[in-house]
Automatic annotation (TrEMBL), chain A:
Cellular localization per UniProt: Mitochondrion inner membrane
Family affiliation: Belongs to the cytochrome c oxidase IV family.
Bilayer-crossing regions: 109-127
The protein's name in its UniProt record: Cytochrome c oxidase subunit 4
Pfam families: COX4
UniProtKB/TrEMBL annotation, chain B:
Localization in the cell: Mitochondrion inner membrane
Keyword field contains Glycoprotein: no
CDD domains assigned to the protein according to its UniProt record, in alphabetical order: Cyt_c_Oxidase_Va
InterPro entries: Cyt_c_oxidase_su5A/6, Cyt_c_oxidase_su5A/6_sf
Protein's recorded name: Cytochrome c oxidase subunit 5A, mitochondrial
Family membership: Belongs to the cytochrome c oxidase subunit 5A family.
Species assigned in the record: Oncorhynchus kisutch (Coho salmon)
GO MF entries: metal ion binding
C-alpha cells in the first residue's frame, strides 16, 4: 500500500506515496529530517469513542469524488441521498451501525466446544476399551449380593441407615 | 463537574422518560479536585457552545472538540450539537455532521428516547443546513 523509499542518510528526497506528503531532507550542516514511516502518521480507525478520526478514510479522491467535494461547498440541500452517502463514505469507512454489529464468531466458538467435547468422549471410550484392565470382581452382582447380606448380618447402621431399611421379619426391603 | 444534558451513569431511567421536561439529571455533580467552584450545567453548555461557535474554527478543533465531548459521560445538549453542526457547515463537511448524529445516538446507549428528542430539537437546524439524519440515508 504505502511505498516509502529507503533513504540513505546522505540523500535528499523521500516521497511517501499514497499520503502525498513529501519529506525532503536538506543536508545543511549535516542535519537531516527523519523519514516518516507509515505507522507514524495519523491513522484512520472506526471507534465509537472517537467518532471523528484524524484522517479521511479515502485519501486519494477520484475525479467524481473531487467534484462531489466541490459541490459540498454549496448548499447541502441540493445533494441527493446517494451523494450524501458518497460523501460520508469518502470520510469514513464504516458507519456506527456497521462498526457496532456483532460478528458470528460465537457460532464458531460453540461449534469448537462441541467438537472438542466430542473428541474427548471418543478418547474416553477408546480408553475404556483398550487401556483399562478389567473391573475388580467385587463389582459382580453375585459378589454384591453376598456383600449386602454380610452387611445386613452385621447390622450396619441399624437405627437410621442401611439395616434400618431391611425388614428382618419378612426378609425383604422395607416398603 | 460535567453534567450537561444527561448524566448517563447516574440518572435512572425515570428521568429520561419525559424528555420534554429537559434531560437534566438530578444534581449529579462530580467532585472537583482543584478546590475551585463547581461548574453548573449552563456554564458547561455555554462553554461548549462558544467553542463550536468560533467563526474560524478549523477541522482539527472540530474533531478535537467532538471527540472530547463524546468522551464525557453525558449526551450533549441540543444547543451544543447545533453549534457543532453549524461548525461542520462552515467547514463544508457534511460527513462529519452525519457522523456527529450517529455518535450522539450511540452515546445514548440503552436510553432510546434521547435520540428522537435530540433530532426533534435539532430539526430546524437540520432542515436549514440540509443535513440528513443517518436514518433518512438508511445507514442504521
Amino acid at each position: 500500500m504505502l511505498f516509502s523509499f529507503r533513504m540513505l542518510a546522505t540523500r535528499a528526497l523521500s516521497l511517501v506515496g499514497k499520503r502525498a506528503i513529501s519529506t525532503s531532507i536538506c543536508l545543511r550542516g549535516g542535519h537531516g529530517v527523519a523519514k516518516v514511516d507509515d505507522y507514524a502518521l495519523p491513522a484512520y480507525f472506526d471507534r465509537r469513542e472517537n467518532p471523528l478520526p484524524d484522517v479521511q478514510f479515502v485519501t486519494e479522491l477520484s475525479a467524481v469524488q473531487k467534484s462531489l467535494k466541490e459541490k459540498e461547498k454549496g448548499s447541502w440541500a441540493t445533494l441527493s441521498n446517494e451523494e450524501k452517502i458518497a460523501l460520508y463514505r469518502i470520510s469514513f469507512k464504516q458507519s456506527f451501525a456497521e462498526m457496532n454489529e456483532g460478528t458470528k464468531e460465537w457460532k464458531s466458538v460453540i461449534a469448537g466446544m462441541f467438537f472438542f467435547i466430542g473428541m474427548t468422549g471418543l478418547v474416553v471410550l477408546w480408553q475404556r476399551k483398550f487401556v483399562y484392565g478389567p473391573v475388580p470382581p467385587t463389582f459382580e452382582s453375585e459378589w454384591k449380593e453376598k456383600e449386602v447380606q454380610r452387611m445386613l448380618d452385621m447390622r450396619i447402621n441399624p437405627v437410621e441407615g442401611f439395616s434400618a431399611k431391611w425388614d428382618y421379619e419378612n426378609k425383604e426391603w422395607k416398603k | 463537574m460535567f453534567r450537561a444534558a444527561v448524566r448517563l451513569s447516574v440518572s435512572g431511567a425515570r428521568s429520561l422518560t419525559r424528555p420534554q421536561l429537559g434531560l437534566t439529571a438530578p444534581l449529579a455533580q462530580r467532585c472537583y479536585a482543584h478546590g475551585g467552584k463547581l461548574e453548573s450545567d449552563e456554564e458547561f453548555d455555554a462553554r461548549w457552545v462558544t467553542y463550536f461557535n468560533k467563526a474560524d474554527i478549523d477541522a482539527w478543533e472540530l474533531r478535537k472538540g467532538m471527540n472530547t465531548l463524546i468522551g464525557y459521560d453525558l449526551v450533549p445538549e441540543p444547543k451544543i450539537l447545533e453549534a457543532a453542526l453549524r461548525a461542520c457547515r462552515r467547514l463544508n463537511d457534511l460527513a462529519s455532521a452525519i457522523r456527529i448524529l450517529e455518535a450522539v445516538k450511540d452515546k445514548s446507549g440503552p436510553h432510546k428516547k434521547i435520540y428522537p428528542y435530540l433530532i426533534q430539537e435539532l430539526r430546524p437546524t437540520l432542515d436549514e443546513l440540509g443535513i440528513s439524519t443517518p436514518e433518512e440515508l438508511g445507514m442504521d
